[in-house]
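Section 3.1: Structural characterization of target chains.
Under the original work plan, the team committed to producing a structural model for every single-chain target entering the pipeline before any wet-lab resources were allocated. The record below documents one such target. The sequence was received from the expression subgroup and is listed exactly as submitted; it comprises 302 residues.
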Amino acid sequence: MAETRAGFVALIGEPNAGKSTLLNRMVGAKVSIVTHKVQTTRARIRGVAIEGDTQIVFVDTPGLFRPRRRLDRAMVAAAWGGAADADLVVLMIEAHRGMTEGVEKIIETLSERTGKQPIALAINKIDRVEAKVLLALTEKLNAAFPFEHTFMISAEKGYGVDDLKGWLAERLPKGPWLYPEDQIADLPMRMIAAEITREKLTLRLHQEIPYQLTVETENWEERPDGSARIDQVIYVARDGHKGIILGKKGETIKAVSQAARTDLEEFLGRRVHLFTQVKVRRGWLDEAERYSEMGLDFSDGK
């Protein structure tokens, strides 16, 4: 019988570096929300991937950035906490953005914020730059930090992803698998459903509103015909935001709900009846309960 391996891999980097896209590709299903907006991943979402006899549990951390609000601070604390607890760490950076000030800050604190675990570098979106630029960037980054290995990848197109996955699988500790074979994420389905709806809202809305809202699954009812009824509440911080989310004659919320329902049906492999309502909750950004719903520690935001 083959020897099994299992362990945790933390994906860290600046917002929008492609961590969620990489996680979803490694796992082979959509477990983390992917949008063109920064700071969309809030909770440490774990996706579970299998590579041969190894089970890789990915911790997709919030992007590391300079925090301004309580929610920001809790997200950054969650990101570094995920990296410190993992067996392996992968720092993702965008090839076309190169060595930004944010990347420099992350590299400066890598040693003190993580343990003795190996740290690999994944340069993402390599199709956007020329080979000589890529080579110079690789040399610069490896001069700044002793990475165990550097991978050139495109998370979106899949280039280099199998090499990275294989490397991670070989380096995780020997031991029994941590999750059942058919489980792809350790988030409760209620939270995944809320994240899917939040993704659709983030894609549809503009500027600050996506960061001023949260989605919670209030009720989940299994129906006799095999379908599921899901009731969700979208909490917003201001009255004006409610009108924007509802849209003219309810068009925006209808389009968001429809897109979320389609994704949920694909994810669950069955029919879904999704009901959403919008509520104004002025102080939700300062409520401990909202943070625990997102898998964040309220006290980390102080």
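The CA atoms of residues 46 and 186 lie 6 Å apart.
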